[in-house]
Structure formats: structure tokens, C-alpha cells
Design brief:
By secondary structure, the protein is of the alpha/beta class. Helix content is 35%, strand content 28%. It is built from eleven helices and 16 strands.
Length: 326
């Protein structure tokens, strides 16, 4: 296995869109043991501005040039989904560790090839499943492990995203709306994180799923598709989950809410990214409020720190201690 003996891991970031610039760079910039050494984007002018702001030494307009940089030990892929496979395969064949945004790839075959290549090469390959590290979700998992709600039986999850916000992040002419390039559009991208979140919280795999969807064309937003998806999941431990996703609302209606019902009649409710409630056998609910900022809000910083600790053997002890605290 490719191992690092030095104190710092050299990080190279490919793709400086919203996630690359606003989540990855601030996260690694503030994590001890990591050093941002290179960035790459097809918009070289923008890449140079970002590099200057964060004092990053090397700037490239080619991901291959970034990966070949001897200072780069690990590559973060935040380019469009249809490019993930080719970038990851090149990075892995070059002996670089990889953190890849989700969806990992456009097809299951591509995703399997990426995982198999990493296993053969002995490098670490990690998908960007940051939502697991969102503070209130991490606390909910801890309470479930402490048997605060007994056995989790039923889960309700709702995520409503304002159409105007979606249009800003992924305009109607963006690659994200091309199913051949994105694997299934923004609805797939958003729902994948939630599916993984439930697998992680319940410590159980999905064995059956039924879903329906309906899109509405929003002419006032340039033919944007206001997606609406409903899904029922059954898990291997017998738990059931009902999920609702929509991008057919105004900003004031935006919401993110997770409810978990246990067999001892206690329940957990996570609201947004900063609040958790536990309803027990007393009249008053217990509440936790989380005031994280920047890339810590949705777990980006925490997930990147976990990735760094996985890569660098010198960080193993810190990683184990952190996992216990979480």
C-alpha cells in the first residue's frame, strides 16, 4: 500500500465549482496535517484567483498535470460527475489517494471499476458522503447507539429545496440536468446523500425500494425541472423509511427534517443542520443546538479530516479519538 511518512499530506483539488471552492478548500486549509499544494480548473483565470487567495503554489488547467505534480499525495475530485471516472482512474494509476464527490460515477459499472482499481493499487478511495458528519445527525446516531429510542423502527425524511436556489446552483442548461452526464439529474444527487445517511444511522442495508416521481417544467426559471420524488425503503433489520424530495417550493418552504421513531415510544427529530430533539417519557423534550459555521455546517470539514486521518498513518491516533468523541 502507498503510505506517507511525512507529517503533511499534499492535497490537489480538481474542479473549483461551489463544492470545490466553498467546501473542500476551506476545509483542508484549516485541517492540521494537510497542505493544499495544487488546484485545477478549466477556468484557469478563476483557479489562479482561488490559488492566490489561499496561497496555493501550483495552478493547472489539466487534471493530469495536477495529478503528476510530485507534491500531490491525494486528489480531491469535485469536477462534474461525468468526469469522475476518468480522473479517478488516472489518479489511482498514478498512486494517488482519492476523495471523490458523489455521485461517484454516471454508471454502476464505472463506480465498480474505480473501487476495484483502488483495491488493486492499495490506495484509499473515499466517496464524499459528508452528510454523515452533520452535527445533529452525528448526535442522533450516538443517541441511537445508546438505546435512547430502543430499536429504530420507522424513519421519515423530507428535503424540500427552493427552485430558485436549485436554478442558481445548477442552471437549466447545466450538465447536471443531462442524465447521460449526471447519472440522473439533481434529484439523484440530492437523494443519494439521504439514502447513505439512513444506512449509516440504522447500521443496516436497503433490501427493497419503491419509488415514484413527477417533474414539473418551470418556465419562469428557464425550463427548470421542479422534481418531486417519493420513496419507501425497507432495511435488512426490518426498519422502514419514507422519503420525500422536492424542488417545487419557494425559499420560505425549504426544509430538511428527519424523524426516527423507536420501539420504546421515544423519538428523535433532526431539523435542518443545527437542531436535534429527543422525545421521551417525560413531558418536556430534550433539545440540542449546534452552531457550526462554514464547511462544518453540513459535515464537509469533519469528513475531510476523517479522510486525511485515513491517509496519513501519523494521524491514526487522532482519528480514533475523534471518532469516539463523535
Amino acid at each position: 500500500m502507498f503510505k506517507l511518512s511525512k507529517a503533511e499530506v499534499g492535497i490537489g483539488i480538481v474542479g473549483l465549482g461551489f463544492v470545490g471552492e466553498k467546501a473542500h478548500i476551506p476545509s483542508f486549509h484549516s485541517i492540521a496535517g494537510s497542505k493544499l499544494v495544487a488546484v485545477s480548473d478549466i477556468d484557469i483565470g478563476h483557479a489562479k484567483k482561488v490559488a492566490e487567495k489561499y496561497r496555493i503554489e501550483s495552478v493547472y488547467d489539466s487534471y493530469k498535470d495536477l495529478i503528476r505534480d510530485p507534491k500531490v499525495d491525494a486528489v480531491v475530485i469535485s469536477a462534474p460527475t461525468f468526469l469522475h471516472h476518468q480522473i479517478a482512474m488516472y489518479a489511482i494509476s498514478s498512486g494517488r489517494h482519492v476523495l471523490c464527490e458523489i455521485p461517484m460515477a454516471v454508471t454502476m459499472q464505472e463506480a465498480k471499476e474505480m473501487v476495484d482499481a483502488a483495491e488493486r493499487s492499495g490506495v484509499i478511495f473515499m466517496p464524499g458522503l459528508n452528510i454523515r458528519f452533520t452535527p445533529n445527525y452525528a448526535k442522533a446516531k450516538m443517541l441511537i447507539e445508546e438505546r435512547s429510542i430502543g430499536n429504530p423502527i420507522t424513519v421519515f425524511f423530507r428535503e424540500f429545496l427552493a427552485a430558485e436556489v436549485l436554478a442558481q446552483q445548477w442552471p437549466p442548461n447545466s450538465w447536471a440536468w443531462d442524465d447521460q452526464k449526471s447519472g440522473g439529474g439533481p434529484a439523484l444527487t440530492m437523494s443519494l446523500l439521504s439514502f447513505d445517511l439512513l444506512r449509516w444511522i440504522l447500521q443496516s442495508e436497503i433490501v427493497r425500494i419503491h419509488s415514484v416521481s413527477k417533474d414539473v417544467i418551470l418556465h419562469e426559471l428557464g425550463e427548470l425541472r421542479g422534481y418531486n420524488c417519493l420513496a419507501i425503503l425497507e432495511f435488512s433489520n426490518g426498519a422502514l423509511a419514507s422519503l420525500q424530495f422536492s424542488a417545487l417550493v419557494r425559499p420560505a418552504m425549504s426544509t430538511n427534517r428527519l424523524e426516527i421513531l423507536g420501539d420504546n415510544l421515544n423519538s428523535l427529530v433532526a431539523i435542518g443542520n443545527d437542531r436535534l430533539e429527543l422525545y421521551g417519557d417525560n413531558l418536556d423534550k430534550l433539545e440540542w443546538f449546534f452552531k457550526e459555521k462554514g464547511p462544518r455546517v453540513w459535515g464537509h470539514y469533519q469528513a475531510r479530516r476523517r479522510a486525511l486521518h485515513s491517509i496519513n498513518p501519523r494521524e491514526q491516533k487522532a482519528s480514533h479519538n475523534w471518532r469516539r468523541r463523535a
